[in-house]
Amino acid sequence: EAAANAYSEGEWQQALDLYQALEAEGFQSAELDYNMANCYYKLGGSLGASILHYERALKQNPRFEDAAFNLALAQQQTLDRIDQIPEFVLVKVLRNIRQFFSVDAWARASLVLFALGLVCLLGLRYGRTLRLRKTAFVLSVILVLFAIFAGCFGFGAKQAALRDDQAVVMATVSSVKSSPSTSGNNLFVLHEGTKVGVLETLGKWMRIELADGRQGWIQTQEAEII
Q1: 73, 47 in Cβ contact below 8 A?
Q2: What does the pLDDT look like over 176-194, one tens digit per residue?
Q3: Within a 13 Å sphere around the CA of 159, how many CA atoms are in the beta-carbon half?
Q4: Which pairs with CB-CB distance under 8 Å and at least 24 residues apart come from 194-197?
Q5: What are the pLDDT digits (tens) for 49-100?
Q6: CA 141 to chain centre
């Protein structure tokens, strides 16, 4: 509440300090990262930190519309314009379905559907007519299948929340090398706020991949894992 009051009064640094104190105490939530991102954005000069925390908020809650909207605004200020490789339609549809509910919601749905499937099996055992027993069997199979699907979506949502293979460039300018060494050839340059995929880490270097498929090495201190 103190941080929110400070933010509403335009004391963005004070609000950020209070939010960071909460983070240091071990508190973690999409709302906390969202508020920190807003503070960084208002303060200016910390575009990378702002985008990083918006991304973390969306990682915890993919349906956080305010975070998605503000992230899009912040990304418009980045210098790098990277064309994304078209995504397979089925993959996009499955991801959207997975993001429709939280991990806990998918888990509860899976348990409820499985329980209802077991209840329908009682109709198979105690149904008075053949038609009733057939209907109970079909319903039990359908409910169990939906329970399995819900469990798979919940597992996928959990894996997405725990993944550590994406990062945001925090350095103002980062030279991408052909090898994990300062003597490697310069392939291209990235700027603060650009989102990259992390393929592997080797000592003080990480091999990254851009949305357009380009790869290279940057120093780990120049980017931060989402």
Answers
A1: no
A2: 999 999 999 999 999 999 9
A3: 8
A4: 194/78, 194/80, 194/82, 194/168, 194/169, 195/51, 195/55, 195/166, 195/167, 195/168, 195/169, 195/226, 196/166, 196/167, 196/168, 196/169, 196/223, 197/165, 197/166, 197/167
A5: 999 999 999 999 998 999 999 999 999 999 998 888 777 888 888 888 998 8
A6: 33
